[in-house]
Write a structure and sequence with these properties.
The structure is a single chain. The chain has a single domain, classed as 3-Layer(aba) Sandwich (Aminopeptidase). Helices cover about 30% and strands about 15% of the residues. The chain contains six helices and four strands, in the order H-H-E-E-E-H-E-H-H-H. Strands 1-2-3-4 form a four-stranded mixed β-sheet, with helices on one face. A hairpin with an 8-residue loop joins strand 2 and strand 3. The longest helix has 15 residues.
Length: about 170
C-alpha cells in the first residue's frame, strides 16, 4: 500500500498501519475487503485489490468500488492484475452487485488499457467531486438558519397509553 501511495503522490499523508489494516479489513466489522495475490513458493505478496461495498443504490443492488489495485512492478504483465480483477468480479457476482466502479489516475494509460482489455469502460457522464477535512469542517459550521431548504427537525414520538382501543379512548 505504501508503494501505491508513493506512486499516486499521497505518501506523506499515508497513515495506514498494519494494525489498522487488520482491524479495518479483517476485524469484527470489516470496512473493506482485500484480495491478495501471493507467490505460493516464497510467500511474497505480488499484488492486492481493496474493495468497498455500497449496499444498495437506485436498483437495490450493491455497487462494488475497486479502491485500489496494485501489482508489484517486477511481476506486471504476468496475469497477476487479471487474476485479482477476476477475484473482484467473483466477489461482485456473489453479492449480486449491479456494477463495479473504480478510478484511474490521469495519465495512467497502461492502467486504462488494462481495464479496457477486461471489458471496463470509461464513464464520462459523472464528474467526481471531493471535500477535504477543512471543507467538511467549514460546511459543518454553517448555521442551520443559513441553509435554505434545510431538512425539518425530526418530530418527537408521542408516548401512547398501552392496551387496546378502549383503554386508549379512556386516556383521551
Amino acid at each position: 500500500m505504501r508503494a501505491l501511495a508513493r506512486f499516486e503522490g499521497y505518501f506523506e499523508d499515508f497513515a495506514v498501519t498494519q494494525r489498522e489494516l487488520r482491524r479495518r479489513a479483517f476485524g469484527r466489522n470489516p470496512e473493506c475487503a482485500i484480495e491478495i495475490a501471493e507467490d505460493v513458493a516464497s510467500g511474497k505478496i505480488l499484488g492486492y485489490a481493496v474493495i468497498l461495498t455500497t449496499p444498495y443504490t437506485y436498483d437495490l443492488k450493491p455497487t462494488l468500488t475497486l479502491k485500489e489495485l496494485y501489482v508489484v512492478p517486477d511481476v506486471r504483465g504476468r496475469g497477476v492484475g487479471k487474476t485479482l480483477m477476476r477475484a473482484v468480479a467473483e466477489r461482485a457476482l456473489a453479492l449480486s452487485a449491479g456494477r463495479l466502479r473504480w478510478d484511474v489516475l490521469p495519465g495512467n494509460d497502461r492502467a486504462e488499457a488494462f481495464y479496457q482489455s477486461l471489458g471496463g469502460r470509461r464513464v464520462d457522464n459523472w464528474i467526481p467531486y471531493a471535500m477535504d477535512a477543512s471543507a467538511l469542517e467549514d460546511l459543518a459550521r454553517v448555521p442551520p438558519e443559513a441553509i435554505a431548504g434545510r431538512p425539518r427537525e425530526r418530530r418527537r414520538s408521542v408516548t401512547r397509553p398501552r392496551g387496546g382501543k378502549k383503554e386508549r379512548d379512556k386516556a383521551r
